[in-house]
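Per-record layout

source: Hassallia byssoidea VB512170
name: DUF4131 domain-containing protein
length: 778
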Amino acid sequence: MIQASGVVICLGYILGLLFTAVPFGGVWVLILGIVGAVFLRRRRITLTKALQKTKAAPPNWQTNPKPIIWIVAGLVGLFASLYFQWRLPQPEKNDISLFVPPGNNNNQEQLAIVRGEVASTPRLTRSQRGQFWLQVKALDEVKKESNSVGMSKGATGKLYVTVPLLQATGLNPGEQVAITGVLYKPKAASNPGSFDFQKFLRQEGAFAGLIGKQINILEEERKWGWWKIGERIVRSQVRWLGIPEGPLVSAMVLGSKAVDLPYEIRDLFVQAGLAHALAASGFQTSLILGVVLGLTRRTRRVTQFIVGSFALILFLSLTGFQPAVLRAVIMGFAALIGLALRRKVMQLGSLLLAATLLLLFNPLWIWDLGFQLSFLATLGLIVTVPPLTQRLNWLPPAIASLIAVPLAATIWTLPLLIHMFSVVTVYSFPLNILATPFISVISIGGMISALASLIFPEAGSALASYLYHPTHLLIRLVEFFAQLPGNSIAVGTISIWQLLAIYALIISVWLMRWWQQRWWFASVIAVALVLIPVWHSASSLFKITVLAADTEPVLVIQNQGRVTLINSGDEGTGRYTILPFLQQQGVNQIDWAIALHFQSDDTSGWLEVLQRLPIKVFSDYSATPDNILASQAIQKELPKSKGIYQPLSLGQTVNTGSAVVQLINDQLPVLQMQIQNQSWLLVGNLKPDELRQVLKNKALPHPQVLWCATESLKDLVLALQPQIAIAPNADLDPKIFSELSQSQTKLFFTGRDGAIQWTAKGEFEAFIQATENRASVL
């Protein structure tokens, strides 16, 4: 009874945290608890009366929780929702984010000097800058007029800092520094599927960032920290293994968050579906306990408990107290306690207890993806591996276990991964089977090397050198699977209701005998829940999306499964804007791409897209001597996906089936489009004299939808009078805003409103506003 009651109460707490996604979530959990108590009480009364009539033996109620326990669980859920709101990070009265000048979010930058303590080891970003967290203590503003330092202000809070790489080299946690740079407030996601930087910082308890230009060390105090031990291990393993093998071994031992792993390797493992190998969690914890208990098997149980506990605490300290590691370590302690007391440990109860303790420590982890995946994967190993192994009893036990473990983890984590990333990694299951022996050898060898490096670094390096060949082979294996055709398939975003329905099927197969016998039927329903809505949307959807892509007009036209992409911007736009959007929309092929460069001849965005998605027809309006090398690079990539390169000249018409496109001026430039019954005009950044001459000559048609640079917005709107005008940013004089508001044109700014979408219903919708409306409904 105690165990069942504890399970119900723990579930009530976790459910209360999950229900924070809906209004009055805690109240709903309390209502569910009351309903459960009433239902259970009536069921008991009915069964008791029936047994009295038949004079049968009374049932043993001790195995079921009493009705009062359900009410207690509901109250705990209500407390959890209130506790979650109380623990949400909020800016303090003197938080550094409150001192960010409003102009810093535009083109005007106000320098500031921020003083504080370095709170993390600097990491390398994709843009080759050093990044670290700073605990703020004071702020000095730099006056624009005299470039002098103003009065110092007391400031607090956590700051996300990026600086030139050389400035961050040699910087250590605990040092007191003064950083000169530009403060800014993070932006929310501007495009569907893109990274929400504002949300990320809020989860870390920060509300502002700093683009540093110079660092001055005020107090070079060498404080001791666990990071020094981790740094010693990494240096020892990298010394003879080299890069990328050395950092990869260290990542498998300490976790990727504790190691500056090259982004090429990180992306490779993620793309192949092997990202969990880089996250220190339950797998490494099991290996540690297995090795420790194996080495101490002839000692007393107390000795095994002490040595095992020390190993777990050391491992936890080195990895930086990550949620997944904390969960695994708590379960490891439960196993050690069971060993010491000679009692069998209930793994499912240990998992639930571990999750509850972690969420009591930090309830915000309930929405941490790493925590969610770790919990689900472990749950799958506990409840799904045994029945899978039983069904595979015709295989040798080692092979059956090798298949059952990754399959169980995949079943429980795949729906959440689809919901978050809209992608299915096709070959991840066979890759996990083949990679598990390599990962085991590398992890065990890496741990032995790490322990040796703490005593004698050269010995650790020598031991790590024996891991070169298995690590190198693992990288080659992952590269092979990542480059296979159709490795990643975008299936589009599934709603929260689809996600809950799929997990309801998985839980039904776990708990109900009827569904266990018809697991194949549940699998078919789950696949249908994902694919049928995607197919229906793709076959009937017509939508135009103007992505928020700085000063470049980037358009995606979706017409009943056919996709046209106009413009790509730079490499960052291709990687962080276009690809995430297409992935979220379930797009696996671009039917027609049209390249024209409004601001530059940079084609790196196209190359980034081509490496991930095939393009059937590539029409290039910008094939000039200035960008001939870039055009050749694109032509080299296209045949890999059986694409066709089509150079176009000024005035030549392109009919994609979704739109009729024509470049009517390549010097300014100006692109005219006819999409269904709507005319669009994309106008490049014109100089004032060029703009006046074009308008004077009446060289531009009158469109219904206009895209233009912000500097040209006023003149073009007043002259062409479109129904809709879209510009990159809203950095306009208030007088111009007032003048434009008197016109009949509706204005959108992608820098302020995010992506702008138009559907066949004839309505334009701003992504940020639509997101806020959906959030207010929830």
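summary: Residues 541-777 form a domain with the Metallo-beta-lactamase; Chain A fold (CATH 3.60.15.10). The mean pLDDT is 82.
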